[in-house]
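I would like you to sit down with the pair of lines that follows and say whether tokens and residues agree.
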Amino acid sequence: MDDLYDVVIVGGGTAGLMLARELGNNKKKTLLLDRKKNLLSFTFNTLGSFINLEEFKLTDYCVAQKIDTAVIHSKSFKGHLEIGAYILDKKKVHEELLASIDTDFVDIKLGVQITNINQDLNANFTSVEDKKGIAYKGTIFIDASGTTGVISRKIGLCPKITELATGVEYNVEYLGKPNEAHLMIGKDYKGGYGWIFPLKDKRAIIGFGSFDTSMIKGLKKKLNHILELPNIKELVKKDNDLVEGGSIPITPVLQKFVQGNLVCVGDSVSQVNPIVGEGYKFIFEAAIMASKAIINTLDKNDFNLLLDFEKDWKQRFLSNYNRSKTAQKRVVSLSKFDVLTDFGMILLKLRGNRKNIQTLSGEYN
């Protein structure tokens, strides 16, 4: 293509849409590319989040259910946390983001599968190229391609083989309290974890996820087993066989997101919070940080300013992410044994509500 864009974004997911919105609102000529033909098609349709919707200019339209209590289950105990959180409808979140993009400055092209990024003799990135050989030129490039890491893996900012936590879930009839979400750990979950997210109209999402790649093929079977547990049957009733699934990255905490005139944001560099896989809140914030560095770079024509994104991210998130990573490893090791998870529940009950929420939300500061 002959058009030269200020910014070319690869990926129209969580990070890509937020970046497109921010860059377009700042009158930067932006091209958003995605391999999907429908940006509102997902493998997972809901997620739990401690997000402040107003902070990201989103509305209650995105909310599938408001949550005021989180119930943590081990084999023998339950702990109750008073929280302020949401179950979000991913389709509606993305609808709002798409509607807020200024199409006078942002072009969106779908069904485009990027396979390569090209450089000049000075090692500056000049274009991304799709599998048909069509090149898309830009001044700055962004990899927001999610766990596929189309560019971040190719240039070594993300490991070639990414560790993933994978989960499956059903939409089921819900028998519990509408504002209570449930998280389950213990031997029945084989080092993984379970969740029940209430929706409206007495429906809920029940899911099972694992950090163990050897279990991926058996996740649906394991979820069906979990549905027969007495404490689960008190809360949900399976009435269909439609299973959904997806993955989040759980690589070691990364700190390098910028190389020359390339910026990587979101799951392409594992910016999901490690402890419970909370992605949207943290990735939205990272995308806004990145957009500010990109806008400043374009305005001042100084590519060194892109590194401000890394500095800002480390100041805001690095300590939290390292603590969450430590907590994640501890939970995974302890949750394989009921006696240890029961003991952990006793400790949870002894801690203050505020400290438990810090751990659950991944916000320690």
In short: The longest strand covers residues 78-89. The helical segments are 14-25, 90-99, 219-226, 230-233, 280-300, 307-334, 338-350, 353-361. The two ends are 46 Å apart (CA to CA). The mean pLDDT is 91.
